[in-house]
Amino acid sequence: MKTIRGIQIASLVAGLTVEDANAFEVVLGRLKEATNTNSDAELALALGLQPSAISAARGRGVVPPAWIINIANGYKASADWLAFGGGFKKEPQGRNQPFWEMDYIKVPRVATELAAGSGSFLDSTEITEELAFRRDWLAHKGQMKDLVVMTIYGDSMEPTLYEKDLALINLSQIKPHTGQVYAVSHDEALYIKRLVCEPGRIIMRSDNSRYADIVLDYDNQAIMDKVKIIGRAIWWCHDNKS
To answer: Which candidate, 77, 111, 191, 200, has a CA 20 to 30 Å from the CA of 219?
Structure first.
């Protein structure tokens, strides 16, 4: 059976149940040590969770297996040590394991293009390639399952985003916050826009002043039914034009 950091997946999926509150806190302490955090709130942030999730786990006396896996992968810690306190704190690099498999994780790049302009009708979620990011950096950007890379098409977001730039999208961050850049589906087209939240409406705004705002009124149900926030752009990079 495939193993992750020296502990079998089956053992993790079965759940890490502890017998008393003290044992739970010991495991939680190892998670905090591995992530260099000091409080439940900081640990929750490292895991991409709300602080209430840790309180709920404490009440059940169960450490969710996903926490162990995410921290083991994101911080190069030994899953065996995190869960049970045994073995090495840091998983040693195997002789046959490439260094990038220890330090990097691959994020899928999908065929869908985000239009910084009049909207792209390309809606394929086919994975065209995988891009490597540092595990320790990516661990603070969200859970791995929620991250995808998309390509920018058009010039409406210049000078922030240019055509063929790559954007890292967190699919779990769908609540709009003023001033943040989001991937948005509107009337069956895909856009990358800066959202501005105002009473009774959301404005899809381009950074390029040549493009007009797209105003979404909450009272217009026909329009709102065709709007979906795909995720927030949490990082992007410029393509080399030379």
So the answer is: 191
115 and 219 part of one domain: yes
pLDDT tens sequence across 101-160: 557 788 888 877 787 765 554 454 566 788 888 877 887 788 878 889 999 989 999 999
Query: What distance in Å separates the CA atoms of residue 118 and residue 115, rounded to the nearest whole number?
Result: 7
Both 123 and 230 in a single domain? Answer: yes
Q: Is the same domain home to 115 and 200?
A: yes
Q: Is the whole model's pTM more than 0.70, yes or no? A: no
Distances (CA, A) of 216 to 73, 187, 213, 224: 40, 11, 10, 7
Same domain, 25 and 120: no
| pLDDT tens for each residue of 54-79 | 999 888 888 888 888 888 888 878 87
Q: State the residue range of the domain holding 33.
A: 3-84
Task: Give the contacts of 92 (CB within 8 A, at least 6 positions apart).
Answer: none
Q: Which residue has the tokens 């800066």?
A: 194
Largest CA distance in the chain: 63
